[in-house]
Amino acid sequence: MNDFINKLYKNNAIIYKVLLFLITVVSIVYLFPKEGQFKYDYPQGKPWQYDNFYAPFDFAIQKTAKEIDAETREIRSNIKKYFVYNEEVETRVLNSFEAKLALFDSLSVKDLSALKKEGELVIKKIYHYGFLDDASVTRGNPGELIILRKGNSIDDISFSMLLQSKDVLKFISKNTNKLDVSKQNILLNLLSESLRPNVIYDTKYSSKELNEALRNISHVKGKVSKGELIILKGDVVVGRKFNILKSYETASSSQLWTKSNYYWIVFGYTILVALALLMLLLFLQKYRFEIFNDNNKVTFIFFNVFLMIFVQTLVVKYNSEYLYVVPLSILPIVLKAFFDARLGLFTHVLTVLLLGFIVPNSFEFIYLHIIAGIVTILTVSELYKRASLFMSIGQITLIYMVTYFAFSILKEGNADKINWLYFGLFAANGLLSFLAVFFIYFYEKLFGLVSDVTLLELSNTNSKLLRDLNEKAPGTFQHSMQVANLAEAAANEIGANSMLVRTGALYHDIGKMANPMYFTENQSTGVNPHNELLPKDCARIILDHVIKGIEIAKKNKLPDRIIDFIRTHHGTSVTYYFYKQELKNTIEGEEVDIKKFQYQGPIPFSKETAILMMCDAAEAASKSLKNPTAQSIDNLIDKIIDKQKNDNQFTNSDITFREIEKIKKIIKNKLMSIYHLRVEYPD
To answer: Long-range CB contacts (< 8 A, 24+ apart) of 314-317?
Structure first.
């Protein structure tokens, strides 16, 4: 049992990767639609690339979405609308009119009788077809036939026959124009106070009639029999042929949908997704081994792949019209910010290929996003410069638009049928791509990674920690600045991360703040406290500046990538000066433990940390030259770096001899520029 636990413990990194791999594969396959993939690819407007195609079974020809929309609009415009006639309103209006008329004492009985008769006649005319309420006025159009329901009977009438509020006064005036003006006004006032609408729009019956008509729309417009020729090889896929092929695709997918087929489709997706993610792991193992060994970074990469697929899948399921609004270019931007361009592009291509299974027009989608990904990798650099990001995303958006425009021309044969909505989607895609800055900041906090933006902030010499270094150990601060300049130039020469190595160089000696006067560069008074100590005590103080630097860095929450420079900048080298002093003070025959004079390491494990080791040693040693000349500097740098090579300090740093020679050349040139002789000015 103990052996099994020990094996698990020893192989915990591999076990974690296997679990991460399986979880990611299952999650991605779960997101994918399970209908299977149609075996023919037939872009509209392109020739049929396969053999003559005959129908393998009977199927119906489906109407296109445009045809169904046209029928729907026609039904909506032609469907008859229902209105309800309330017969009780007329009786109530008559009673109200008679009651109000009886209050006019100034009129004779004869006049009252005449007005009553005239008013009743007008009311009957108004309610013959009906008086429409204001809320229902917009439900019909003049000349449109409607259905008027009176109790159990229905009548087809023109909507214009119904009287509306705006026409009531005109209607009354027209039908009482034989009366004198005073009596006409009395009748007009009484009727306008008494009249009430009695026809309202029947929402229930109208909706029922419309829904019934819409349900009866046929979604098919013909049938293809088994064995019937659908398309010949070389025929252009357009018009009816395209519709028949789409109908066949729909019919065949419905036949595929069985429980046994479902499991086979899931199995197929699992293999394809697993292969893609396996390629990513193999790439990391072969070309980015330091990332492969870091489970945190592998998790970060897999999480980003899954996140992009998850968001794109949601959009496809919601509405595939908005397919291109998802900013997939965020993936290469983020990976390039934290790692490198090659890894960013490789991961982006694999992600786009996986998405090709679930999107319509997969070839167009894959081509667009791979081209955009390449442009992203080529243009996005120096994210800490706002103008750089704006320019890069502008170029990416332009590439999207130009590529889509070209595809549209190829499909349609002209530019008349281009869907301009997609240009808006590409613009939205560009705007959403700026979220990469937010994601970079979020990932730095969540995964403890470091981007160029953070490195720029850390390299600011006005930061609190560097100000403290300048105040407590000004000589060390100046030394760090010189090393940073040398290291940055060397990194640029061999294509390493110059921003990272510069920032690491600025902080590599912060441990000297604990005992600044024990380091030569800070001894401005000429007093050397080492003169009062034993060599082994002096060595311990010197060696401890690495440990104290790590403690200070962690206390100030510096990223691990910066702490790596503090930890490795002396590797496992020996403080030879104090070691030799100890040998001199030792009685002949006694052994001196060299480990007490040796840094604990580790040795540099990247090009950047190796560059810092070389530049740090070279800059410090150059201060010992009393009369620096080109020859003396040249010999000194060769001696120092060759000794580091012989001590195997660079075996883990993935740096080549050719690159080391380039770094030596840069250091020599820079130091000669610093120590060059100036012209003597006369007194």
So the answer is: 316/358, 316/359, 317/33
Distances (CA, A) of 530 to 476, 533, 584, 593: 17, 5, 16, 20
Instruction: Identify the burial level of 570 via C-beta atoms within 10 angstroms of its C-beta, where 0-12 means exposed, 13-18 middle and 19 or more buried.
Output: buried
What's the half-sphere exposure (Cβ side, CA atoms, 13 Å) at 26?
A: 6
Residue 277: the pLDDT is: 95
Residue 487: is it exposed, middle or buried by C-beta count within 10 angstroms (0-12/13-18/19+)? buried
Sign of the four-CA dihedral 353, 354, 355, 358 = positive
State which amino acid sits at residue 433: S
What residues have CB less than 8 Å from 617, skipping those under 6 apart? 640, 641, 644
- As a whole number of Å, the CA-based R_g of the chain is 43
pLDDT of residue 679: 46
Cα gap 453→436, rounded to integer Å: 12
Beta bridge partners of 145: 158
Please list the alpha-helical segments (H only) found in 413-451: 421-433, 435-447
Sign of CA dihedral 96, 101, 105, 106: positive
- Helix (H) and strand (E) counts in the chain: 28, 8
CA-CA distance, 381 to 493, in Å (whole number)? 17
pLDDT of residue 209: 85
The total of other beta-carbon atoms located within 10 Å of residue 1's CB is: 5
The DSSP line for 629-679 is: -HHHHHHHHHHHHHHHHHTTTTTTTT--HHHHHHHHHHHHHHHHHHSPPPP
| pTM of the model as a whole | 0.62
- Extract the tokens encoding 660: 């080391």
Q: In degrees rounded to 5, what are phi and psi of residue 626? A: -75, -40
- Per-run averaged pLDDT (10 residues), the chain, 683 residues: 63 87 94 70 76 82 83 85 87 84 70 79 85 81 82 83 82 78 80 85 86 85 84 81 80 62 83 95 90 90 95 87 89 88 93 89 88 88 68 88 85 71 88 88 84 81 89 90 93 88 92 86 76 82 90 89 90 84 72 81 89 92 82 89 90 89 91 67 54
| CA 435 – CA 328 distance, rounded (Å) | 11
Q: Which residues contact 271 (CB under 8 A, 6 or more apart)?
A: none
**Token pair 């209607």: residue:** 171
H or E element in which residue 389 lies: helix 386-412
